[in-house]
Design goal:
Length: about 325
């Protein structure tokens, strides 16, 4: 049994200790002492999700899933007199759409199960989530979408909440807490692919509503392993998100402060932190030894003498082909 505490006073009981500290088994005790048991199976469970006790249970784990994001977009869509676009239709399973219909949510920001009607498609892959815009990928459009994620899930930004129509910081903070629960500070960095086709770190909007960005070169140090190189290698206009959310899942600090997206039983996209950045290459070389393997790896056509040619994981196929060729020459 693992007991985890926090400033809010909640605790998890019977957790299987893991990277994100989300409830795997057992029950969750909320701050008001209500005890609920979240469903964490791979099966989409929507029965009761429109009941407050289940919503609160989901808001007190560290996992952002499509139902919760639908609730965020629904709440943001209800805000009036915003300076930027705030009404988006999120692609969700049909069962979640049906719940939204029963709640009489206006169609302009109600989650939809029809991709032709969706404004945003979210692919949740654990520590990194990919967000796709169905409305266009110009800087202004992506900037407005990214700002919703930053202001709602990227920490407290009362000075920037004005874009969403909040002139009173207290009103914004109350809205944020009621809407997203523990996830209010779950995103570490947001990447946005600008019109030049490159990813940049998104830091909000200027007074004209244009994205404020900085280069990937700032992702340095022990928190991110070869981040600039790996993000550039991931960048693909047709496959990687127009916006990428990097969740707070660092290996330092308390496990309760690490977050993820998607389902615990799904396969995950790798993160940039040390926990899954170093994967050993183990080769069985009949009749060979370490010296012979190193001589192959250190060739200029492969890893080079200082192994600088094998940063990242893109040379594994070349290495294996070279070893096999050497063996059968």
């Amino acid at each position: 049994m693992v007991m985890v505490g926090g400033e809010e006073g909640f605790r998890f009981e019977g957790i299987k200790e893991g990277h994100t500290a989300m409830p795997q088994f057992g029950k969750v005790t909320l701050p008001d002492e209500r005890i609920v048991e979240p469903d964490t199976s791979c099966k989409l469970r929507v029965e009761g999700f429109n009941e407050k006790k289940y919503q609160d249970a989901e808001k007190y784990n560290n996992n952002l899933h499509i139902w919760e994001l639908g609730e965020v977009m629904k709440a943001v869509g209800s805000i009036q007199n915003t300076g930027i676009r705030n009404k988006y239709r999120l692609l969700v399973p049909e069962k979640i759409e049906e719940i939204s219909k029963k709640e009489s949510i206006p169609a302009e920001y109600r989650p939809t199960s029809t991709i032709e009607s969706a404004d945003i498609v979210a692919a949740f892959n654990g520590p990194m989530a990919h967000i796709y815009s169905m409305m266009g990928t110009d800087n202004k459009t992506l900037g407005e979408i990214a700002e919703v994620f930053r202001v709602m899930l990227g920490g407290y930004h009362p000075d920037d909440a004005k874009h969403l129509g909040f002139s009173d910081p207290d009103d914004y903070i109350e809205f944020q807490e009621e809407t997203v629960g523990r996830l209010w500070n779950s995103i570490d960095k947001i990447l946005i692919r600008m019109e030049d086709g490159k990813y940049y770190i998104f830091n909000g909007l200027d007074n004209n509503g244009n994205p404020i960005t900085e280069s990937l070169t700032s992702l340095t140090g022990g928190e991110y392993i070869e981040a600039e190189l790996r993000i550039k290698g991931m960048n693909n206009e047709k496959r990687s998100g127009d916006i990428v959310l990097i969740m707070k899942d660092k290996t330092t600090g308390e496990a309760i402060d690490r977050y993820t997206t998607g389902s615990a039983c799904k396969s995950w996209h790798g993160s940039l932190n040390p926990s899954d950045s170093y994967v050993p290459l183990i080769v069985a070389y009949p009749g060979g030894n370490k010296k012979e393997i190193e001589e192959i790896l250190q060739r200029d056509t492969l890893c080079k003498q200082d192994y600088s040619g094998c940063r990242g994981n893109w040379r594994v196929r070349d290495i294996i082909k070279e070893i096999i060729t050497e063996q059968y020459e």
